[in-house]
Amino acid sequence: MDERKYMGNPKDGVLIPVAPSLAELPNNYTDMRDTIINKIKENRICSAIQVNSEMIELYWNIGNEILRRQKNEGWGVKVIDRLSKDLKEAFPEMNGFSPRNLGNMKKLASCWPDFSILQQVVAKIPWRSNIVLIDKLPDEQTRLWYAQKLIENGWSSNVLDIMIATRLIERQGKAINNFDSALPSPDSDFAREIFKDPYLFDYIGTDVKRREIEIERSLTEHIEKFLLELGQGFAFVGRQVHLEVGGSDFFIDLLFYHLKLRCYVVIELKAREFEPSFVGQLNLYQNVVNDVLRHPDDKPTIGLLLVKGKNKTVVEYSLAGFKNPIGVADWQEQLTNELPEDLKSSLPTIEEIERELDLEQ
User: Fold this and answer.
1) pLDDT of 12-67, one tens digit each?
2) Bridge partner residues of 248 (DSSP)
């Protein structure tokens, strides 16, 4: 039962919690309040918070103190409201002490009980992204995986939200491939982690039969979102890249260069299920790119075949014997129709993604 007092008119639909008086609070409240105030002063951030890690560590300490007191002494939500008021009065030049944010600090301490992990990983992440992690993910190992990916890729909080909603952890490194036999270690391990299965292209429209050329056009019209789904390191080179082989004309669907792997990536998009002949076609394109476009310092060109369904055994037999590194993965559309209701609401709109991308440039 909510014991807080509110101000405002219920008919207006806006109620603001009123901080209780000291007489309404537990006897040990002032001790906790003074402890937290001292923690803030010790961090020397009374004038401004300049270093993210210091702020996150401070928030964890505040949350841990609240958590410990509430657990040991059974305090209710009234304490949070009063603490918010007292901290704002003690540090009027600082932001972040709203009742809601104090609740987030408490949740931060609860979700990351090991302070060493917080220092090594979590404190490197912006506060808004930390809130996404603790709000969206129930277990620590999954939170830690996304936290590390965020640091590696420099995701914003909105991009992190997309990656969680689209279950990146379940798709990363899942493409069927021959990288172990076609690439030396550690390049093979790195390439395996870069490619995923399936790829999700929700922004290209409804699931109707279309020609592959129309799908390619849609992907390149939304190139920022396509690159976001491909992952960090991909640089777009061209679409329908012309190759002349023995007097015949061929066209690569999509050509990229990967800045970390230091190699070209040929992507062939098929609007039907996998067929073994697709691998031979992709291998031809890789051979030509290696001969014509590849710089002596570049590594072997990687091929990625995107299909609408596949049989794992058939794909593995089809890749056997090819010396060029090739990955095969599904691609899907209409993602939001397949998501649970709780994830649908968390997936940003196209407009929100576009705004986020504009801010990052």
Assistant:
1) 555 555 566 666 676 677 777 778 877 777 665 444 445 688 889 999 999 999 98
2) 245
How far is the CA of 180 from the CAs of 185, 261, 322, 326, in angstroms?
8, 15, 12, 10
Strand partners, 303: 266, 326
Question: pLDDT tens digits, residue range 152-186?
Answer: 988 999 999 999 999 999 999 999 999 999 999 99
- Within 186-266, residue ranges assigned H as helices are 187-194, 212-221, 223-230
- Cα–Cα distance measured from residue 335 to residue 333, given in angstroms and rounded to the nearest whole number: 5
Q: What is the pTM of this model?
A: 0.76
